[in-house]
Amino acid sequence: MLTLDGVSAGYRGLRTLHDVSLTVADGEIVALVGANGAGKTTTLRTISGFLRPTAGRIRFADRDIAGTRPSDIVRAGLVQVPEGRDLFGPLTVVENLEMGGYTQDAATRARSLREVYELFPILAERAKQPAETMSGGQQQMLAIARALMARPRLLMLDEPSVGLAPKLVGAVLDAVRRIRDHGVTVLLVEQNAAQALSICDRAYVLESGAVAMSGRGTAMVKDPRVRRAYLGM
Amino acid sequence: MTRRAPLSLAARLAVAAAVVAVVLVLAYARSGSGIVVSQAVLTGLLLGGVYGLVAMGLTLIFGVLDIVNFAHGALMTVAMYGTVLLASHAGLDPYLTLLVTAPALFGIGMALQSGLINRTMGSSLANQLLLTLGIGLLIENVLLLSFGSEPRSVAVGYAAPLRAFGAVADLTRVIAFLGALGLAALLYLLLQRTRVGTAIRAVAANPDGAQLVGIDVRRMYVLTFALGTACAGAAGTLVAPFVTVEATTGELFNIIAFVVVVLGGMGNVVGALVGGLLIGLTEQLGGVLLPEQSPLLAVFVVFVLVLFLRPQGLFGRSS
Amino acid sequence: MRNLRLVGLLAALGVALAACGGSAPPGTTGQEGDQQGGTIKIGSIHPLTGPLAFDGQQMAKAGKFAAERINAQGGIKSLDGAKLQVLDADSKGEPEVGQSEAQRLIQEGAAALVGPYQSAVASNVAAVAERNRVPFLIDVAVADSILEQGYTNTFRIQPNASSMGTKGADYLAELAEASGTPIRSVAVLHEQTDFGKSVLAAFKARAEGSGMKVGPEISYDAVNVSDLTTEITQVKAEGVDALVVTGYYRDGVLAAKAISSVRPDVKVVFGIANGAFDLPQFTSDAGKAGEGFFDANYHFNARDPEMRKLAADFKAKYGEDIRTSSVLAYEAVRVIASGLEKAGTRDPQQLREAISGLSLDTLMAYPGPISFDKTGQNTSATPIVMQVQGGTVRQVFPKEFAEAEPRFPAPPAR
To answer: In chain B, which residues have their Cβ closer than 8 Å to the Cβ of C10?
Structure first.
């Protein structure tokens, strides 16, 4: 569904990504792991259209999307939950969700709202609360729910577990699995490699802006290089 | 993030009421006349409403686009001239010209934002300031060249003094005040209860997040700027019946508008209205309390005081 | 970067347009000199843009008109028919700009300067004139202090602030006595800068001397005021016999409207050096609210046939009714021409000598010819009294200038 082919990109002339190639197939959970500063967020921002690649191609569902506006990429069905969440702080939970469904018609929005409330009941409870008054874990769920409101075909999550207590991390990953089971393909970026590798089908390891390793999740977990560098063993 | 525990709403209202009571008593003592005090209060509220009216468009633009629109006053003046022309040549009631000036100013705002200002979004503050300043200067001088330097005025045939509590106010000022309330209500409903308004608030809260949900942020900037200039247009038309219209008239309101925007909390439309009322009252009561000084001194003192106690403005968000 | 260039271009465009303003760019206007005699340059500094452009632009036109008329009659005959050339400059209403423009004009060869409409600008230009020893004719600028610096090169044709205030008090007392309506208490509403304060001070000294009680004294900020209702309510609360108002145009209109709303119980509204009450514009902007208002102010002599001819010719050429400030600008150029004629040389210092000894009949409503004292003040300069009668401004006092009888008392229209 999503293909990056030799993508290079950077901020202000500094090249952050070097010749990155990866694929995400329909129905998969693909993990992108790597240390701080490896270029994981840059990769997602480039896919989402915030950064124009200096080289290479990006294809989503048989369409070339490099250089497309971010709002059009969302309309195409490729939605990101960014690191830092980028919620609309002063707006209420339900307003955030309504905005999430901005590209959809009213009937679909209503249906999606019911579905995300089922997935994250806590959001229904706090529907009229400003987003910025919620706890970290609740905000993360809101961010994911908001992205789901856009009815994505592929959902990208950038470090959803950062700053969360272990129990909440588990809940978030649970939700990711259920999302995939509902038919949404997932690209998961994580610094916390252990968690990411445990739920993914395939994984890529990014080092200094380039793909260092790739393979099935189960294989990566057993790879001694991965274990030493990213699993602390 | 540590903050002093904020006073409850009730406590804050009580403090405000106490301050107001003290000021009124002092004003009465200074002037020796209850009528003077009630006149100062009435004039202050009406004037303050106009200040709020002028500031609303400006605060909207600042809150969403993060731009200080120095051309705001000049745009108001364009609407004033529009009203003067339509009223004198087409014989229209000045208030009816609103149906022309507000949409016209909306269009001008759209053109300005999409044609010029959108290109500087994201560039330095100095760039944007210079640009809106340049636009304001350009507009003012085009007006001077087109209409000459002769002061104009437009009269409302049915204008009359209205009396209440021993004080008096001209109908045209009351209409402007009501216009301010009406516009504030309209903007509030738009921003809070419509999809577009919520999208505007979303862009103000987090432009990146807005892109991520599929909102075309550049189009929202154009829409919001146009809305802001339409407000400037409405303000210009509503004040035209009681001001002398010249190319530089809008400048007079520019400075006050900035003060009100900062005082009320940048981006907050209700804050602009309340801030305006506060400034208006301060100006008038200050003139009674300190007759030898310029009332701007009292305004300055209040401005500094509020910002010291609440740097984000009365209704602003502490970041 | 494209953005920066675009921004710069726009800003430059705005500034350039501002520099052009509403009149011809600074430089040559009026005739180029004939072969014999050549040309003599006169620098003319007025606010051609900004809030005072209305008067500034007409004053510039009036100065050029004077030069054209003089040239048409043969120029400066004692200098072989040399033609006058008026160089316009825009002070933009700012003292620093006026100063640098004065410097520039002198460098371009101006033999004399006229202007500038504002006291703050006049002070700066006077200093430049003194430094360069070039005569400077003030057409309009009221502050006493300008001629209290010991300058020998600055001359003023209009009355100064103290004489306005003093004569204003005299006129008020005389009109009251003549009509048998005693005025015992006077409130003063004045703009808060030096202009308003000095006129008030002179008025108060004289009025109290003749037995009137002056108070309350209410000041306001002319630049920022948008409503004078509270101030007039304060006047009403005091219950005074008369209200004196000193200020500029915009605030004069606001005062009239406030008076019409509040309806203070005064017998007369008396402007002194008021920038609104004697202008034809005022009667349409304020409407019935201004009916009966007096103004003790400088004024051209509407009864003088030569003045009426000037007004007609000016209207024919420019389509505008000439105002007093412009007549003063016209007279300023005439004074310079007479000085040149008398001196027979372009040398600025000799010109200064000639001007200081002049006695020139004037189109202004003054009791005598223009003639300057040691400090450069025109000794004949006095205000006269106008009144709005039936929507028209008429000269009413003293008798030698009166077009109509004064209607005293004149309580504000209801």
So the answer is: 116, 131, 134-135, 138
